[in-house]
Amino acid sequence: MTTAALPSFIDPARIGPWGMFLEQLERVEPHLGPLAAWIDTLRHPKRCLIVDVPVRMDDGHIRHFEGFRVQHNLSRGPGKGGVRFHPDVTLSEVMALSAWMTVKNAAVNLPYGGAKGGVRVNPAELSMAELERLTRRYTSEIGSIIGPDRDIPAPDVNTNEQIMAWMMDTYSINQGSTQTGVVTGKPISMGGSLGRKDATGRGCYVVAREAMQRLGMPMEGARIAIQGFGNVGSAAARIFHDAGAKIVAIQDAAGTIANTNGINPHALLGFLNGNPRALLDYPEAEAIANADFWGVDCDLLLPAALENQITAANAGQVRAKLIVEGANGPTTPQAEDILNANGCTVLPDVLANAGGVTVSYFEWVQNASSFFWTEKDIHDRLDRVLTEAFQGIWDLAAARKVNLRTATYIMACSRVLEARALRGIYP
After folding, report:
1. Averaging pLDDT over each range in 32-36, 250-254, 328-332, which range is the top one?
2. What is the pLDDT of residue 275?
């Protein structure tokens, strides 16, 4: 990767997740034909907004938090992407996440561009009142670039439907009218969609099911290890378990547990009762070292935490035949080379975790029409969208003799760059 591909305000020695995205672009560029002439479009985010978020704390003093909203590409439609509250949020990370949203939306053919947002904060250290004031001030600060037809935020790490309710209300107050379509992932009572909460985890299951059928891997009895037991990981665990698979290991911030006979995710969730720190106390599993998680004997590995988890340092330990990326950017390019060489198939994040944004799209459409669908409708439409996207990408990978990530990027980047070329440059 050349430093010429980096925006001038990014230190090339500390490029982080954005560097991963740029390397992924370099790998797909030779496969884009004439459209490769436009690929620099994807190397430069359309708009990066950095905002100061001052918040009056409960004790009366003022704290300042740094917030971001990045719109990577809007050639195919309004920006779409979540907002995360995390102490490690950086501009490099948000840029990369917005770029992966561009690719993800195009990969499943949603009429969106890519965007992402974040605030560098540990929400666990805030009271509910402080969290509300933070959310509302951040929404006001980015209010000039978001909107139902401009850029639509959604939940991500450490944000949820309550955060979305505050964001929608703040934006609506500033606009002078209720704007339900400005965010997705809202409470059902405020125009949210049925099926949204489990959508990302359900999407992981759908594409995994399709891949397993083609790889000759039966679902019944399949051994699955899951990193991350939040919204995505726990939903995926429940759905895989109910389909007959065995969850043999779970890793979360609290640590790692394993049971070769399987962990019942429904029972585990009941035991945790909203307290993830109790994971290691679960009596039906054994605590193991975090480093040993990667070498757990399993058929399918589902990283559903944060980016940069599977690296060149631990990829050689992975024994799974299939990796399904529930998180964004969990596997570095160097690690993927090792995995591929060892016969492991990787279902890339921009396809595997697209269930969330797909149902967000359904929510947005329902808000625009003020007509709402049943949960069965949501599940059926999600299954159809992801199955068709998977089939096209699988066939393209076979035809071009490339891995699934490269095939996904060929499909998605071609759609984005074709739109960019047809729209041209103005003025």
Report:
1. 32-36
2. 82
pLDDT value for 8? 46
> pLDDT tens, 210-240?
999 999 999 999 999 999 999 999 999 999 9
CA distance 131 to 122: 10
Average pLDDT over all residues of the chain: 94
pLDDT in tens, 89-111: 999 999 999 999 999 999 999 99
User: So what's the pLDDT on residue 273?
Assistant: 86
Active centre residues (catalytic): 116
CA-closest candidate to residue 166, choices 197, 195, 137, 196: 137
Residue 262's CB is within 10 A of a number of other CB atoms, namely 16
Scored b (16 or more CB within 10 A) or e, 153-188 reads: bbbbbbbebebbbbbbbbbeeeeeeebbbbbbbbee
Please state the pTM of the whole predicted model: 0.92
Residue 422's contacts (CB-CB under 8 Å, 6 or more residues apart) are none
Per-residue pLDDT tens digits for 148-174:
999 999 999 899 999 999 999 999 999
Three-state helix/strand/coil letters over the chain: CCHHHCCCCCCHHHCHHHHHHHHHHHHHHHHCHHHHHHHHHHHCCCEEEEEEEEEECCCCCEEEEEEEEEEEECCCCCEEEEEEEECCCCHHHHHHHHHHHHHHHHHCCCCCEEEEEEEECCHHHCCHHHHHHHHHHHHHHHCCCCECCCEEEEECCCCCHHHHHHHHHHHHHHHCCCCHHHCCCCCHHHCCCCCCCCHHHHHHHHHHHHHHHHHCCCCCCCEEEEECCCHHHHHHHHHHHHCCCEEEEEEECCEEEECCCCCCHHHHHHHHCCCHHHHHHCCCCEEECHHHHHHCCCCEEEECCCCCCECCCCHHHCCCCEEECCCCCCECHHHHHHHHHCCCEEECHHHHCCHHHHHHHHHHHHHHHCCCCCHHHHHHHHHHHHHHHHHHHHHHHHHHCCCHHHHHHHHHHHHHHHHHHHHCCCC
Measured distance CA(211)–CA(205) in Å, rounded: 10
What domains lie within the chain, and their CATH numbers?
45-178 (3.40.50.10860), 199-352 (3.40.50.720)
